[in-house]
Amino acid sequence: MISRHVVFRALRPSTPTLVGTTTQRRLLTSPPKTTRPEDAKASLQNVNANKSKASSASSEDESSLPDKVRAMMRRIPHPLTVITAQSVHSSLPSGLLVSSFNTITLSPSPYVSLNLKLPSSTYLEIQQSQTFVASAISSVQLARDFLLDKKDRRFPIALRNNVRDGDSRLKSGRGGIWWMRCQYMERESVQVADHVVVIGKVTETGFYSNDSRDAGSAHGSPLIYSEGKYRVAGEAIQ
């Protein structure tokens, strides 16, 4: 009988196969580096500094945005309109000059809109009386009268000189061109930030006399405002 000797050998642990570049193998086999406290602090300071710069740049953009929009809109001509409302508590009306008056629709009924900055005494009178009058004007002096501060002692005098008692329309010969009497649409009006968009339904219209307070007002041409100056419409291009 043939005797067979079986030898058992201890198996050595196999060496794992490394895959990848030398740099990758080095990263896999290198022990993790420890971060020093001072390095971590410096890194955090850099992150905070970058956030602060980004926040500052964003704030500067936001603060300059209104100025940019204002500069752009100043280049667009806006019609000047006097808005007047009769007080329910006194015979003295209230009024102001706006450059935001415009039509919304003409059908089935004509609706108009205008923007008023709050607080506004004229808006209070509009709310109480539920009506207002919009007047296109040709007089620079009339425009200046309605730009007077309400606390200016000349303002009540300007109102009495320019507005009819108990009617809210301008007096004849004061520089008005046409007028629209409007019903205040309270439910349709809306406040946006520090302004209110007033919506009105036109109920009556008419024209003022053609005489004007200003000799240089282009014989009753409606005043417009652009680039910080009063103007009138020029020659038609087409």
Give the arrangement of secondary structure elements.
Elements: H1 22-29, H2 37-73, E1 78-79, E2 81-85, E3 94-98, E4 102-105, E5 111-117, H3 121-129, E6 131-137, H4 140-145, H5 154-162, E7 176-184, E8 190-192, E9 195-207, E10 223-226, E11 229-232
Antiparallel strand pairs: 1-10, 2-3, 2-6, 4-5, 5-9, 6-7, 7-9, 8-9, 10-11
Quaternary structure: single chain
Unreliable spans:
1-18, 214-219
Treating each run of at least 4 consecutive H or I residues as one helix, how many helices?
A: 5
Strand content: 25-35%
Question: Percent range for helical residues?
Answer: 25-40%
Describe the global form.
Answer: elongated
Radius of gyration: 38 Å
Helix-strand topology string: HHEEEEEHEHHEEEEE
Which structural class matches the secondary elements?
alpha+beta
The termini sit apart by: 125 Å
pLDDT averaged residue by residue: 81
The biggest sheet, with number of strands, parallel, antiparallel or mixed sense and barrel status, is: 8 strands, antiparallel
User: Could you give the count of β-strands?
Assistant: 11
Account of the 3D structure:
Helix content is 29%, strand content 26%. The longest helix is centred in the N-terminal third of the chain and has 37 residues, at 37-73. The radius of gyration is 38 Å and the shape is elongated. It has 238 residues and is an alpha+beta fold.
